[in-house]
Design brief:
Layout (H helix, E strand, L loop, with lengths): L1 E4 L2 E4 L8 H19 L10 H21 L6 H12 L4 H8 L1 H4 L5 H9 L7 H12 L7 H13 L15 H31 L1 H15 L16 H8 L12 H10 L7 H7 L14 H12 L2 H17 L5
Helix pairs in contact: 2-3, 2-9, 3-9, 4-6, 4-7, 7-8, 8-9, 9-10, 9-14, 12-14, 14-15
The protein binds fe (ii) ion (FE2).
């Protein structure tokens, strides 16, 4: 089969990386452990129920996009990619516990939560934590060593600032699949956030406060919620990433407006044209707003929340990037 990633055509046999049974077995193992683990976070924590929903949405959106790309319904590789999409953020549970245990843990399981969080002390980020969890649960033993490596690699690298540089199309397929799966997981993760969260991030006061909390914890620095501000100038360092068609690394984000520009900049890091086109497609979110493509939702919001000149510049940069990919926004 052939898919396009980063504007390069990749031809590969799509030899099965696993069987459907193996995917089913992995799902059973995860389902038997997950509720106990998630219960270590307090109810309502954004990395508990909401994260599980994000995983489910990543898998569901994955099914649609992978179909569009030509993966058959019963293709075990498609099932595997959707499974990875579903579980890539498991590590958010220990991540949340490590950040502020007293505040984030289930008060009834505080000691257990502390012990659990300590197991992840050496992990770089929640991607590595997800891998460690799957390791502990024995999920990798279900798959062949090569496939286990692909899963590890994709989950560990879904958190990188930028998508990996993909190997040449004539690279050995076993090696290439590692990068193809990683590129797809990164796209599907972000697409699910665009689909599930754009309207909420922009218009839902509760969600905005929640995000403020999360980013404040993550960045460990002063984070200004200037949601109402209209004339705030965005820092040049942030603008430069957009001008250069690059995703903004999260560490540069200090305001809510920048957080939304950061999200828009993910569009500049999408690997597959199917996902990019989806961002430019109307999305119905009756709860908050009229139907509009997620990328336009953010650009329109920026018109009213940062200075006009910079909002226009961001719109032009992102529009030009989409036009380069033959998509009109
Ligand atoms: Fe993640």
């Amino acid at each position: 089969m052939e898919i396009i990633l980063q504007n390069v055509r990749y031809n590969f046999s799509n030899r099965p990386l696993c069987t459907s049974n193996e995917v089913g077995l992995a799902k059973e193992i995860i389902a038997s452990h997950y509720p106990q683990m998630a219960d270590l976070l307090k109810d309502g924590h954004p990395w508990k129920e909401a994260k599980a929903l994000h995983g489910a949405l990543t898998a569901q959106t994955g099914q649609e996009i992978l179909s569009e790309m030509g993966f058959e319904n019963n293709d075990p590789n498609r099932e595997l990619i959707c499974l990875i999409g579903e579980i890539h953020d498991l590590g958010r549970v220990p991540d949340g516990l490590q950040q502020k245990l007293a505040q984030n843990a289930n008060p009834e399981r505080m000691e257990e939560a502390e012990r659990f969080a300590a197991l992840f002390a050496g992990c770089k980020d929640h991607g590595e934590m997800s891998v460690k969890i799957l390791e502990e649960w024995g999920v990798f033993n279900v798959f062949s060593p090569d496939t286990a490596d692909i899963i590890r690699f994709a989950i560990a690298h879904h958190t990188d600032d930028q998508s990996p540089i993909l190997p040449r199309p004539d690279t050995d397929e076993a090696e290439m699949m590692k990068f193809i799966v990683t590129a797809l997981i990164r796209d599907l993760d972000k697409l699910a956030l665009f689909i599930g969260k754009t309207a909420k991030y922009l218009y839902d006061e509760k969600e905005i406060q929640r995000q403020e909390e999360i980013v404040k914890n993550l960045l460990n620095q002063k984070y200004h919620l200037t949601y109402r501000g209209r004339d705030k100038r965005v820092e040049e360092v942030v603008m430069n990433f957009v001008r250069n068609w690059q995703p903004i690394p999260q560490r540069f984000i200090t305001t809510y407006q920048q957080y939304m520009i950061y999200m828009a900049s993910w569009a500049l890091d999408m690997n597959s044209p199917e996902v990019l086109r989806r961002l430019a497609k109307d999305m119905i979110d009756a709860e908050f707003t009229e139907s509009k493509p997620p990328i336009n939702m953010i650009l329109d919001w920026l018109d009213n929340h940062i200075c006009k000149e910079q909002a226009t510049e961001i719109r032009q940069a992102i529009r030009a990037y989409f036009a380069k990919n033959n998509i009109t926004i």
